[in-house]
């Protein structure tokens, strides 16, 4: 599937509608990327103002999701798309939902910065699980950049690597939670309130990687016309590898 297919219809308005929809998804992705970048910097610096910006950006992300829904409805009502055009509409709706939820999870992750900004005597980076959280968000950002690039290029070649990243995130989360459990068992009652927020942030960061994996599935459907939902990571990776090998 080539992006030029969205510009090849006799109707110029149809071409513009599809192009607008495609670009709107990319714009929404860029906003979510900014949210994640701000979230990680907010937590590192216990920057309450930056954490609030993550929440402010979420309003723009939510508006973009509504705009994508509107564009999809317009294409469906006026052009009655089929084949690859219809797959773009369906994929855009799915991807917008996942991006919106990533935005929500970025807000949840950044709440740690707001909480820790109030207690200067307890540096955030001394809390158990801090390094794991930073590592997961860094991987989330890498995954998000790669998946948005895959969408922009209509290219599935990097998706297998993204699945590997998601599996790695699960391992980091498990290790971080073990570290936190160990701390809770060793007289850190005074830190319990902050450690609980750390747990919430780690779980939110982990869920971001799961939503990015969903976007991978939507891109496979968009580009290859194949349904790969509800596969576990191992089967999904093998499926993507096989499909890409057949395309060479």
UniProtKB/TrEMBL annotation:
It comes from the Bacteria. Its main location: cytoplasm. SUPFAM superfamilies: PhoU-like. The keyword Cytoplasm applies. Residues 25-111, 135-219 form the PhoU domain. Keywords: Coiled coil, Cytoplasm, Phosphate transport, Transport. Gene3D superfamilies: Phosphate transport system protein phou homolog 2, domain 2 (1.20.58.220). Residues 33-67 form a coiled coil. It is found in: Cytoplasm. Homodimer. Plays a role in the regulation of phosphate uptake. Belongs to the PhoU family. This is Phosphate-specific transport system accessory protein PhoU. It comes from Thiomicrorhabdus immobilis.
């Amino acid at each position: 599937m080539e992006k030029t297919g969205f510009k090849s219809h006799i109707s110029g308005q149809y071409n513009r509608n599809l192009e607008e929809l495609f670009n709107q998804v990319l714009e929404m992705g860029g906003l979510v990327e900014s949210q994640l970048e701000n979230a990680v910097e907010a937590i590192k610096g216990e920057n309450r103002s930056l954490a609030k910006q993550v929440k402010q950006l979420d309003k723009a992300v939510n508006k973009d999701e509504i705009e994508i829904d509107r564009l999809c409805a317009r294409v469906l009502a006026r052009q009655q798309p089929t084949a690859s055009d219809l797959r773009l509409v369906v994929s855009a709706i799915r991807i917008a939902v996942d991006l919106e939820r990533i935005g929500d999870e970025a807000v949840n992750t950044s709440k740690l910065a707001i909480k820790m900004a109030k207690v200067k005597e307890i540096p955030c980076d001394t809390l158990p699980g801090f390094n794991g959280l930073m590592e997961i968000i860094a991987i989330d950002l890498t995954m998000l950049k790669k998946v948005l690039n895959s969408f922009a290029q209509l290219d599935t070649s990097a998706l297998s690597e993204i699945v590997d990243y998601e599996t790695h995130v699960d391992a980091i989360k498990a290790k971080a939670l073990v570290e936190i459990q160990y701390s809770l068992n060793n007289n850190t009652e005074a830190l319990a309130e902050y450690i609980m927020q750390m747990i919430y942030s780690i779980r939110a960061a982990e869920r971001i990687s799961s939503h990015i994996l969903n976007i991978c599935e939507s891109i496979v459907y968009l580009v290859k016309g194949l349904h790969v939902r509800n596969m576990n990571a191992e089967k999904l990776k093998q499926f993507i590898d096989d499909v890409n090998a057949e395309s060479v």
